[in-house]
Amino acid sequence: MDAILTLTCSDQPGIVHSMTSAVLACGGNIIENQQFTDPTTNLFVMRTRIQSEQSLSEASKVLHQGLMHLDPEISLREIVRKKRAIILVTKESHCLRDLLYLHELGELPIEIPVVLSNHSDLRDLVEAHGIPFQQLPAQKADAEAIIRNSVEHHDGDFLVLARYMQILSEEFCEHYPSQIINIHHSFLPGFKGAKPYHQAHARGVKIIGATAHFVTGDLDEGPIIEQDVAHVSHSATPEDLIAIGRDIERRVLSKAVKLFAEDRIFLVGNRTVIF
User: Of 11, 38, 220, 240, which one is the catalytic site residue?
Assistant: First the structure.
């Protein structure tokens, strides 16, 4: 078994010793380890890659027994089991295309069982990659019910909003805490509302960017996962900014999805720790 073990608990003496002892008890060997203590929340987080002759269930039982005194949150995932991403889109294709391309190359360690959309524009693109496409109804409650059913039916691990231009209800967001990744067309905080690049152009900005974050009930206020920027000059038109922004958006979203897929994101309060 080759697996990723993640642990979150209150910082306290003996955590690393307990971890190494528990891994040894399941006949395991630590291949890679990263850890961090957040001074604000006093949370300790650790990401450990282990190899063991035991099965996942056997090792999981031993590890939980050896670490239970820490009162931790623990997850153990075999590397061969890729996380399953339900992708939501509307009409813009750049983020979706990048995800599909990297997935096809084997550079994005996820499975994509279905793509859902509130429009039919991207059906041909999705189905050309051999992935099922399902159009959502216009009514929000009905659409969210179908999304929930899709997550359950496909055993989805997380949702990716690849320029899905609909606001999800607070109830829906709370149902999937830290399981919905969105790409925002700005280096948050930034220009909100319609035509953000036109607003940026009118203000003469010199840097534009994009932000991937977890979705919460507070619009565009969720914990930030990944960001990037590009410098622009006074000669750039709104169309130039849109083109540059699309390139940043696709890269930032794909990076965030990869980080999530590899169990590298930890929540500490309203912030993220990224290994």
Answer: 220
